[in-house]
């Protein structure tokens, strides 16, 4: 339980919440008493909601839906308003990987799929979240980018890197446009994080380039998201924060 910031009465939305980084952020919020609206395309998000609600004695509403659809973003904010009357935090986390390929071989449908989930969904969510946060007196939006949103990496895909760079730009512009309304908007840029989505990947290449000599965990990111939402980060706005064990310094 955090002793630094009072989160009582706060409400958060987390997308891509069923596993990995999203689930870790849900847990991090619940540990400090935040009520939650969580979503994923997987039905398992309902089980997570029950587990978190029981373990941490917080209210959790789960929605199984496709976050790449603008109506999903609207529904999430409506649930927050109807069930809790406010929205304080949002972690727009949902995303997928791409397929490394020469640009001439990149399928248009694959490009659009990654852009829709990794970028357009973030825009849809922010568009629905900002008005509700403004009514609540302000709030914090955290968008999940990547170290690939800060620089291209050998072996990454064109569509993934493009989407994650765009998330950083979107984040910074929202921070500038809405800071005076009491809304902070930051991007988190994880390095290689061990999750169900990355467990089959070769990690030796990354480990050799990480000064801390360990891979990141989902909890590393979840706790950082919570920290960026706290009053301890009240003057942090419009940043793209790398959480990578020093990987980008090598």
Describe how the helices and strands are arranged.
Elements: E1 11-15, H1 20-31, E2 35-40, H2 44-56, E3 60-64, H3 70-84, E4 89-92, H4 108-135, E5 139-144, H5 158-178, E6 183-190, E7 193-194, H6 204-207, E8 216-217, H7 218-229, E9 240-243
Parallel strand pairs: 1-2, 1-4, 2-3, 4-5, 5-6, 6-9, 7-8
Helix pairs in contact: 1-2, 1-7, 3-4, 4-5
Model description:
The protein has a single domain (about 10-235), classed as Rossmann fold. It has about 250 residues and is α/β, with parallel strands linked by helices. Strands 3-2-1-4-5-6-9 form a 7-stranded parallel sheet, with helices on both faces. A two-stranded parallel ribbon has the order 7-8. Strand 1 (about 10-15), helix 1 (about 20-30) and strand 2 (about 35-40) form a beta-alpha-beta unit. The chain contains 7 helices and 9 strands.
Please trace the helix and strand order, writing H or E for each element: EHEHEHEHEHEEHEHE
Strand coverage percent:
15-25%
Percent helix: 40-55%
| CATH level 3 topology | Rossmann fold
Domains (count) = 1
Largest sheet report: 7 strands, parallel
List the main descriptive attributes of the protein structure presented here.
single chain, 250 residues, alpha/beta, Rossmann fold, seven-stranded parallel beta sheet, two-stranded parallel sheet, 7 helices, 9 strands, 17% strand, globular
Structure in a nutshell:
It contains seven helices and nine strands. With 250 residues, the protein is of the alpha/beta class.
């Amino acid at each position: 339980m955090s002793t630094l910031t009072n989160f009582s009465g706060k409400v958060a939305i987390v997308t891509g919440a069923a596993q990995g980084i999203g689930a870790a952020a849900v847990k991090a919020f619940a540990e400090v008493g935040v009520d939650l609206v969580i979503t994923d395309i997987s039905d398992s998000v309902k089980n997570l909601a029950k587990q978190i609600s029981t373990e941490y004695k917080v209210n959790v509403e789960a929605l199984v839906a496709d976050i790449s659809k603008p109506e999903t973003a609207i529904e999430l904010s409506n649930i927050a308003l109807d069930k809790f009357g406010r929205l304080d935090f949002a972690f727009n986390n949902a995303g997928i990987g791409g397929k490394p390929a020469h640009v001439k071989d990149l399928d248009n449908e694959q490009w659009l799929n990654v852009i829709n989930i990794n970028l357009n969904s973030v825009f849809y969510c922010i568009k629905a979240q900002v008005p509700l946060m403004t009514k609540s007196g302000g709030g914090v939006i955290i968008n999940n980018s990547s170290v690939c949103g800060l620089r291209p990496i050998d072996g990454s895909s064109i569509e993934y890197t493009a989407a994650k760079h765009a998330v950083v730009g979107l984040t910074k512009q929202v921070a500038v446009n809405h800071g005076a309304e009491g809304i902070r908007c930051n991007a988190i840029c994880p390095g290689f994080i061990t999750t169900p989505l990355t467990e089959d990947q070769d990690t030796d290449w990354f480990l050799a380039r990480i000064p801390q000599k360990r891979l990141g965990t989902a909890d590393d990111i979840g706790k950082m998201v919570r920290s960026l939402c706290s009053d301890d980060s009240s003057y942090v706005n419009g940043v793209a924060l790398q959480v990578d064990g020093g990987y980008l310094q090598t």
